[in-house]
Amino acid sequence: MSSEDKVRSTKLKFKGEKTKKKRRREDDEDGPSGSSRRRRKDEDEESPETWVLPEDANDIRGPTFLLHPSDPSPICVTYDSTRGRIILHSLDKERTEDTAPSASVLERTPTDVSQVWVTTRVAGSPTINLRTGTGEGKFLSCDKHGLVSADREARGPQEEWTPVVFPDGMVAFMNVYEKYLGVDEVAGGTIALRGDSEEVGFAERFWVKIQSKYKKEAHEEAKQRKEGIADVTKIDETGTNKVYQAWGAGRSVVSVEDKKELKRARKEGRLAEAMLDRRAKLKSDRFC
After folding, report:
1. What local confidence, expressed as pLDDT, does residue 141 receive?
2. How far apart are CA 70 and CA 76, in angstroms?
3. Bridge partners of residue 64, in order along the sequence
4. What is the pTM assigned to this prediction?
5. Which candidate in 58, 77, 121, 191 could, as Cys together with 66 as Cys, close a disulfide (CB 3.0–4.6 Å)?
6. Is the backbone of residue 205 left (phi > 0), alpha (psi -120 to 50) or beta?
7. More confident residue, 196 or 134
8. Where is pLDDT greater, at 232 or 20?
9. Could you tell me the CA-to-CA distances from 248 to 98, 114, 122, 223 in Å, in that order?
10. CB atoms within 10 A of CB 75
C-alpha cells in the first residue's frame, strides 16, 4: 500500500460545529498572565538581602538606608561612630571624571555599614525607632527645638518617628512634636538634619530602602492579619519592659494588673501610652 492510500486519522466533527483554535504555549509566556507569573518568580528568586523600596509604612523595618535626592549629588544619612555624630554623606564624593557614570537615585545601595540604620518598632505602635548600625547602637532623636542627634542608648518619646509613605514611594518622618525631619543648609554651607519643619516639601522627602526579606515578612503579617489567621500585634510587656527598664541581673518585672486594659488600649490605638503607665507604677523609688 502506497503512502497516498494510507488512511489519515482525524477527529470526529459534526456539521455546524465551530472549529476551536489551538492555544499556543507562547501566548502564556507573552500575555499579561505570563508576565505576572514571571514577576512573581523573579520576586521569589530575589535575594533576601536585596534593597527594595517600601510600599507601606509597616514595611519599614530591619536594616534601613536613608537617601535624599539632593542636587547635584544625592546624600545619605550616615553615622560617624568615631566622632559620635550624624553626617550627610555625598554618594558621588569619591567619583571622578574617569569613573563610570553614577547610577540613578533609585539604584543606589549602601556601600558602608555606617550608612545603614536599624529600624525597630513596639508592637501595636505606628511609630518606629532608628538605631545606628555601628558603634554602641544610638537612637536617632529630635528635641523640641528641632535639633537632631544620635547620642542616646535608650528610647523615649524624642526617639520616636512616624513614617509617612507618599504615592510616589518617598517617605517623610514626623517626630513626637508633629514636625518633620528634613535637610537644611547651616552656617558654613554644610548640610545637616533638622526636625522643625511644619510642612513636607522637597527637603523633607527621603528615599528609603529596606531589605527584601523584611518587606516580605511585613506583607505576610498583613495577609495573616487580614485573614484573621494570627494576631501579629502581640502584647509583649515583658520584652518592652526589658528595653525601657533595668532591674539588674537581667530580670524583667511586669505589672500584676489585668491585661484586659492593654487589649482595650490596643484597640483604641494607645497601647504604648498604656504600657508606659503600667511601667511608671512599677517604680520602687518614691521620689522619682
Report:
1. 95
2. 9
3. 117, 210
4. 0.64
5. 77
6. beta
7. 196
8. 20
9. 57, 31, 22, 39
10. 20
115 exposed, middle or buried (CB, 10 Å; 0-12, 13-18, 19+)?
buried
Instruction: Using CA atoms of 243, 244, 248, 251 in order, give the dihedral in degrees to the nearest 10.
Output: -60
Concatenate the DSSP letters of all residues of 108-120 into one string. Answer: ----SGGGEEEEE
- 3-class state of residue 31 by DSSP: coil
Confidence at 28, pLDDT banded by 50, 70, 90: very low
- Residues paired with residue 128 on neighbouring β-strands, in sequence order: 161
Nearest one of 61, 49, 40, 65 to 211, comparing CA atoms:
49
DSSP three-state, residue 75: strand
User: 3-class DSSP state for residue 57?
Assistant: helix
Q: Do 77 and 188 form a contact (C-beta atoms < 8 A)?
A: no
Higher pLDDT, 233 or 225: 225
Mean pLDDT for all residues in the chain: 78
Nearest residue to 275 (alpha-carbon basis) of 189, 168, 155, 135: 155
Q: Is 148 helix (H, G, I), strand (E, B) or coil?
A: strand
Average pLDDT over residues 211-234: 76
Enter the DSSP assignment of 284. Answer: -
Would you call 141 exposed, middle or buried from its count of C-beta atoms within 10 A (0-12, 13-18, 19+)?
buried
In sequence order, the β-bridge partners of residue 63 are 118
